[in-house]
Hints:
By secondary structure, this protein is of the alpha/beta class. Helix content is 52%, strand content 7%. The strands form 2 sheets. The chain has a 5-stranded parallel β-sheet with strand order 2-3-4-1-5, covered by helices on one side. Strands 6-7 form a two-stranded parallel ribbon. Helix 9 links the parallel strand 3 and strand 4 (153-158). Mean pLDDT is 87; it is low at 1-10 and 113-119.
Amino acid sequence: MKQKIEQTRSNNQPLAARMRPKSLSEFMGQKHLVGNQRPIRKLIEKDELVSMIFWGPPGCGKTTLARIIANETKSKFIQLSAVEAGKDDLRNVVKESKYSKEFQNSLFNQNSKNMRRQSKSEMRTILFIDEIHRFNKAQQDYLLPFVEDGTLILIGATTENPSFEVISPLLSRCRVFVLNRLEPDQLSEIINRALKNTELGLGNLNIVLDPEASAYLTEAANGDPRTALNALELAVKLADSRTIEKKTIEDALQHKSLLYDKHGEEHFNLISALHKSMRSSDANAAVYWTARMLEAGEDPLYLARRMVRFASEDIGNADPQALILANSIFDACDKVGMPECNVFLAQLAIYLSKAPKDNSAYLAYSRAKRDAFETLNQPVPMHLRNAVTDLMKEVGYGKGYIYDHDLKSKKSGQQCLPDKLKGRKYI
Length: 427
């Protein structure tokens, strides 16, 4: 067993890299894109590629799918990382591309049928840009004319919402495809392939993955086959027998990773889930989303601020104590910090979820704001104005004002809105 394991160590390429699919038949997941009669498969089969943006979580197959597209269409493939590449790198790619307008025209002007057959695939360059959301506006602008005229077929990969991170002109020239994280059963199939593959995988070692270990690995990998395969490879090296148990997988993984980016779309997805769970009075869900964000590294004061807002927007005067408690817990989180303040926020999430709901203050302000913009600079009624000089009194400032405390009812009913908004109701 140990001798065979040592043989796998001699291969410096990680298991995940060795097992990377080379064709659509090997590609796992994303059936909505590469399944029979689905868009990407049809583009490949018809050899009619367009520039595209792949948007999805880490490990869902964005880079692999781009390489498969190039392989299946026999296109020249150039890969850049937006983390490292600059405008000079983009210039060099354009220069190297055989699919320039001048070269294309020269080929079509020749009478060789063979050259015509070759032109479409051999002249086409696919430029794959990993993490394209990290390119600045100038770098993205530079790509526009070459994507526009077909000099390059651009495939950009991003974990961030391209609506926010990719400039509109470039986005309009690309087709956006959303890739999903893999399901546990799909990860299980990938793991089984690796265990049975005798050339690239671990098939020569006769490894057996305990059912409990397999279930844990497919769940802990969080939809990322790269994580699953790398953990499996390490577990094989740590194991003392051919049967890999859950404890060995735990040692290989060390911890489960929570998908989260404090500045990315998942951040807004989770805070939206928390807010809407509290609004729906689901305390269990509210505590869960609170824990998801805190354990992934979110600033507890950010959560506290959002809960302070919620206390007025969704609870308001139905329970004025909610805002007082929210402010108190914000101060407590500021003083104590993580991890101790996690229970403060859980307490607040439960309270806000169970509290009666009233959004009248939020709606009232929204209506008043709309009127404030639509009826700009309406004059304050004369009787409500403060007459601080004799001249102001002479022209009528404060004239006719009723001091409500002088009335037995304490309610004068005098007009307090501008004339144009007289009788308007906000609550």
